[in-house]
Specification:
This protein is mainly β. It is built from one helix and 16 strands. It is flat and about 55 Å long. It starts with a helix and ends with a strand.
Length: about 220
């Protein structure tokens, strides 16, 4: 066998070894990706016996709240991993869950994770105090006989209440619009980019909502 023929065989051998290595690497990546979940849903039933104050914290995402009867809160959370890193892969959320804590008469529901968006759907009877905090996203809450505080960093806030229950109302948008619909003695003031509004319902439960950048509104029926 000539030197040239031997060299060609060696080149072909290296080539096929390289192809085999790449196939194994790709197979490993596919197996790894199959074990990664970019989306996940969890549910919780939470006993509210003895709970007077509920606090909700969500770093990035949406909080939907609807009123219900009884002494149990029903929570559904949808997690979605966002792309990050050099490979621009979606973050694995297969082990994600919210943190639920009770301390005395206080219940806290919270989630904070980089590159993950959480959408919370919560139905619950009216607590005495309801605090909602979101960093970036949306707050859409239906409230009744509760003192309500809602704060948003960047996004939109909508609070729907009942005029017979709502007391003093104040809304504040650092950059955006602030609106109150259905209340009495509604007044507003606007600067160059910010707006504040105040009013009241016919009841005693205050509603306070603010947003850094975005729109905030309270709608009374």
């Amino acid at each position: 066998m000539t030197t040239a023929t031997t060299h060609n065989h060696e080149m072909r051998g290296h080539f096929f070894k390289h192809i085999a290595f790449m196939a194994l690497l790709l197979g490993g990546l596919l197996i790894a990706d199959s074990a990664i979940a970019a989306e996940k849903e969890v549910t919780h039933s939470i006993d509210l016996a003895g709970i007077e104050r509920i606090e909700i914290h969500n770093g990035v995402g949406t909080v939907h709240i609807r009123r219900a009867q009884g002494e149990t809160a029903e929570l559904k959370v949808e997690f979605e991993g966002k792309r990050s890193g050099l490979m621009r892969r979606k973050k694995d959320v297969s082990r994600m869950d919210v943190e639920i804590r009770t301390r005395g008469d206080r219940l806290s529901i919270s989630f904070q994770e980089n590159n993950v968006e959480a959408t919370m759907y919560l139905t619950l009877p009216d607590p005495s105090v309801l605090d909602i905090h979101v960093g970036v996203g949306v707050i859409d809450a239906e409230v009744g006989e509760s003192s309500v505080t809602a704060s948003m960093g960047v996004g939109d806030v909508t609070i729907r209440g009942l005029v017979d229950y709502a007391g003093d109302i104040s809304v504040d948008a650092g950059v955006g619009a602030a609106r109150i619909t259905g209340g009495d003695n509604v007044s507003s003031s606007r600067a160059i980019v910010s707006e504040k509004a105040s009013g009241r319902g016919k009841g005693t439960f205050p509603i306070k909502a603010d947003v850094g950048v975005g729109d905030v509104k309270v709608i009374l029926n």
